[in-house]
Amino acid sequence: MIVGSFIVFLVGFLLIGVLSVFQSKKDTSDYLVAGKSVPAWLTGLSAVATNNSGFMFIGMIGATYSMGLSSIWLMIGWIIGDFIASILTVKPIRVTADSSKIHSFGGLLSQWHGGDYKVLRTLIGIFTVVFLSVYAAAQLKAGSKATTVLLGWDTSTGIIIGAVIVLVYSVSGGLRASIWTDAAQAMVMIVGMALLTYGGFSLAGGWDQAVVAWQQATPTYLDLFPDKGFLGIVLFILGWVFGGMAVIGQPHVVIRFISLDSPESVSRMRFYYYTWFTLFYGATIVVGMLSRIVFPESGQFDAELALPKMAMEILPDVMVGLVLAALFAATMSTADSLILSCSAAISRDFTQLKKLSLWGAKTATFTILVIACLIALTDNKSVFALVLDAWGMLGSAFAPLIIVKALGHDCSQRMSVSMIATGLLTFLGWQYAGLGGLIYSVGPGIVAGLICFGGFWMLGHSERVPAPEGES
Q1: By CB count within 10 A, which of 31, 74, 156, 457 is most buried?
Q2: Domain ranges of the chain
Q3: Is 465 left (phi over 0), alpha (psi -120 to 50) or beta?
Q4: Using one digit for the tens of pLDDT, what is the confidence trace for 72-83?
Q5: What pTM did the predictor assign?
Q6: Given this structure, which CATH class describes domain 2-385?
Q7: Per-residue confidence (pLDDT) for residue 470, from 0 to 100
């Protein structure tokens, strides 16, 4: 029954993606950015589904299982940072993307004010492929964890099945297929979390009994703040605010903002995005805490397996299949976006040809997916660590540059490359020094990138430029 339910939902997602081919215009622009014609509700659900991936179902639930209520600050900080970045940058991004030349993340940054910085574009393309390949591997790895627990499959089986499904509908309809399936996956994801929340409280005997169980878990499990002292708490929360701001440095999310049908749709898109984001992230915290009741802490227990094990414990088989499909859907909704962003980088940023065949872009998709599979099959790091590393490196490298450009400052190629290098090296240095426990390393990375811009600005190497038509 579990396998049957799981297969039914996966086939449904596959069909939705394949059906998008009937609206495809069969050109590289439609394949990479969906013709920049996606309505607000679809863009919002797609962006939030691809943002909230296996990291939430596997990594975040595992972190909450261990941390307790204080993990809520990851949610609060992350959403606040995400919202700040959205207010500062999303509308300028969509206005700039009206240019018919922009079909990739590298194209957006290198052509923002009408120029075409080829070195910058190539550098961004390289970083996009390297970091997003690792990120995609983390998503495939997250999906395989669920199939290993619930279906008893070998880890490699789950990775390969997820990759094949992503390949089929991505090659069929490109970004449009990805967005359509993201929206369907977003709905299944929220239903899956609601079922686990209800089942978890039922198993615990209601709210009052759950509170008692949490108090018995550890003395600090219900503490609102982590045991870090005042300064440590402030840095902890601030780090996750920067983590949320780093969303604007993620090529696979930004490409969805580029695909939006018009700049005037940004406010409506935000409504769908943040409503779903808040509900889902809140449910993730609750389910992570409930899993601690269902599975008391043990030295042998892998916290990142809390959700699939919890589903088997408290739900009927058909619903276990749905939750497994929801988890798999979450990983695929991000994996396909990552792969397509890499395809755009290869077909638009490396080659920089004005006309590249559609099959060339699809070949790039296949190549990157194979690389991501190989990484997923060989890497032993946790999903939580893999995602935070990739997310942090991308945010540190690109978020400062996007923020500065969105605020109307023209940046030379030398300045842009310097900001990217400064942010990335600061992130890596902070991690290497073991300071990630003090504040999430993306915080120092973003700040360093902005300071680098400040240095150039003080030397007179930057000036504000008129806002594009339609941008306030």
Answers
A1: 31
A2: 2-385
A3: beta
A4: 998 999 999 999
A5: 0.85
A6: mainly alpha
A7: 47
